[in-house]
Amino acid sequence: MSENSFSVAEALPADWREGLWLGRIDLGDGPLPLLVAGGIAHDMSRVAPTVSDLVAARAFDPAAGRPIGALDTLGLSATGTPRLLSPVDLQCVKAAGVTFAVSALERVIEERARGDSTAAAAVRGRLEERIGGSIRGLKPGSPEADALKATLIEEGMWSQYLEVAIGPDAEIFTKSPVLSTVGWGAEIGIRSDSTWNNPEPEIVLLAGADGQAVGATLGNDVNLRDFEGRSALLLSKAKDNNASCAIGPLVRLFDAGFTMDDVRAATVDLHIAGEDGYVLTGASSMDQISRDPEDLLAQALSEHHYPDGYTLFLGTLFAPIQDRDEPGRGFTHKIGDVVTISSARLGRLVNRVTTSKAAPPWQLGISGLMRNLAARGLIGVN
């Protein structure tokens, strides 16, 4: 990954000119919503000042915007000008957890190991021996799932993570505050006091206030396994930290050529390259997810109302157990790791790992964005 330069050929799929893409860039005076069609980028800020407003109005006609040039000639970067931003702004950032059998087992392992990576291998062996593949293929909330739950309770093997893996209710949590997500090429942060952590490569849906998804992109739900393993009540510290949520590079909007069925059939690949020469690869096949994306969207919306819409991380099959340094300790990040998350129809999200303390501080909040939009004449001030 180049430190600054955004390469369309490397970041977007081969058919990117055939799709309709939604994103955000900063040309130097503040963020603006962007539509890319036929390879041409269009400034949509005079149609709607934010991506949230654009989604609410379903204003996805690039002809209504201002053409600013071919996307691959704009000279976008992650840190300079013009700068590529995370493609979402005012949406609530929600995430679904434990949506794959393998990740369910890993959460149970974290819990039983009390966040101690050295104890994980022994717990993993015992758990696989007892229930192994018996939860794979189970429909959550089904009679078969209820029967397995009863058996595990009798054997003293039940866990709150298995409850959300095979019970009727999905785990839905708030991953990150509004406007805090980082985009392609930005540094991603892990807490400096974490000793066991990993990326979580996922597909992210973008939905309006009505709960209807308009498109999909890639995301990294950076996770601190030691914190959550010590207590599920530490989930917010495990998940919500400076620069701990990456989304991008752009949202591919649903159309005749790209639909929710493409999400259901997608494979999400992960590649981690460390400065120490360490390489780790993995993949999540969305056809192994235990809950349909539409069901997760509905559970995230619930009886709540997100007037500015929401994004939803769909969960990951990937749970890294490959040893990095010492046998039995599994994987954890090191500073400088380059994490690449990719999918054939969505492109590649690339970020470099640092600590949340060292990552650029998140500074542009909601009030700052409103002042910026007003100063540019994109919204009125009453």
From TrEMBL:
The question of whether Metal-binding is a record keyword is answered with yes
Q: Which Gene3D superfamilies match?
A: Fumarylacetoacetase-like, C-terminal domain (3.90.850.10)
Q: Name one GO molecular function term.
A: hydrolase activity
The residues that cross the membrane are: none
| SUPFAM superfamilies found in the cross-reference section | FAH (SSF56529)
Residue intervals of the Fumarylacetoacetase-like C-terminal domain? 172-353
- Keywords attached to this entry: Hydrolase, Metal-binding
Name the family. Answer: Belongs to the FAH family.
UniProt-recorded name of the protein = Fumarylacetoacetate hydrolase family protein
